[in-house]
């Protein structure tokens, strides 16, 4: 827990949150990334009070996504910023709110959002997008919106940068009020942490972006947490055939639990994956989901859909400057291709309903948690992800 001395604290569902730190700087533990591929350092940092329209959160659970891994590896030079506090999948409890925040209060259970929703801009008022003109996902952003400064600093006063508007690898973090949503206080914070990225992205891609129909056929390329969530979402909507594609055959064990009916390992084939899928499905699947961030895989996913109506949804992060491997004339065959950010969920206005559906068993969140570790072992959790041994390793702070 943060360094609060003997100050009084209040308990919310067994989690102790200081009730007399409002307006004060908090000293707490955070995992700081000091450079590409350098082990994260658990150290004391200072977290400033929230400013106008900001919220300070006590993080209770956080997990690691491939986006965190990519940032830590420094794969995109334009996005490098160190020292930095990474992390964007989490759940916690509001410690204090800044001036003007009226939809949250101290003690509320919340999930941070890397793709925010201000609620006032032309984007937020449109039903056609879940992007926000002010708070949409921005990996380049490293400071707060209102004043262009960081709320984190080292003990000698040097600033530490934010990440994806959330920075959840810290016992306390400060976010824009549009980048956090209140959830049911009776829901498990451990499970709810999964909704701030991977599960929502995959399930939402099947439900909102693709609008998978009952009786349809689906192919999922890349069986990490997002791909498995897309499969689970497709199953929940009544897809009858869900084909998983991955070079790791161990992934199919979990894939079957999530609803996959068939599995293809490209290494076992003597022809292209799309040709195999077309033969299996008499022309191609209705929907494909690309969850790898690999352009060659994207082309296979696109060509594996049925001409005339096939839809490919891109979920993988493509950091390469190379362009999409699709000739314009190939789109004249009726296949479509689109991207999906956060599963097209509007975070503040729609995520609570999705959380409720998960609590009712529509999506089994327990299956995504493969490991649990204390926050102090965050570097071990990174290694599990690197080695492909974990879907989500949840860290308790």
UniProtKB/TrEMBL annotation:
<protein>
    <submittedName>
        <fullName>Alcohol dehydrogenase like protein cytoplasmic</fullName>
    </submittedName>
</protein>
<comment type="similarity">
    <text>Belongs to the zinc-containing alcohol dehydrogenase family. Class-III subfamily.</text>
</comment>
<feature type="domain" description="Alcohol dehydrogenase-like C-terminal">
    <location>
        <begin position="225"/>
        <end position="355"/>
    </location>
</feature>
<dbReference type="GO" id="GO:0005829">
    <property type="term" value="C:cytosol"/>
</dbReference>
<keyword id="KW-0520">NAD</keyword>
<comment type="subunit">
    <text>Homodimer.</text>
</comment>
<dbReference type="InterPro" id="IPR013149">
    <property type="entry name" value="ADH-like_C"/>
</dbReference>
<dbReference type="InterPro" id="IPR011032">
    <property type="entry name" value="GroES-like_sf"/>
</dbReference>
<keyword id="KW-0560">Oxidoreductase</keyword>
<dbReference type="Pfam" id="PF08240">
    <property type="entry name" value="ADH_N"/>
</dbReference>
<dbReference type="InterPro" id="IPR002328">
    <property type="entry name" value="ADH_Zn_CS"/>
</dbReference>
<feature type="domain" description="Alcohol dehydrogenase-like N-terminal">
    <location>
        <begin position="53"/>
        <end position="184"/>
    </location>
</feature>
<dbReference type="GO" id="GO:0051903">
    <property type="term" value="F:S-(hydroxymethyl)glutathione dehydrogenase [NAD(P)+] activity"/>
</dbReference>
<dbReference type="InterPro" id="IPR013154">
    <property type="entry name" value="ADH-like_N"/>
</dbReference>
<dbReference type="InterPro" id="IPR036291">
    <property type="entry name" value="NAD(P)-bd_dom_sf"/>
</dbReference>
<dbReference type="GO" id="GO:0008270">
    <property type="term" value="F:zinc ion binding"/>
</dbReference>
<keyword id="KW-0862">Zinc</keyword>
<dbReference type="Pfam" id="PF00107">
    <property type="entry name" value="ADH_zinc_N"/>
</dbReference>
<keyword id="KW-0479">Metal-binding</keyword>
<dbReference type="GO" id="GO:0046294">
    <property type="term" value="P:formaldehyde catabolic process"/>
</dbReference>
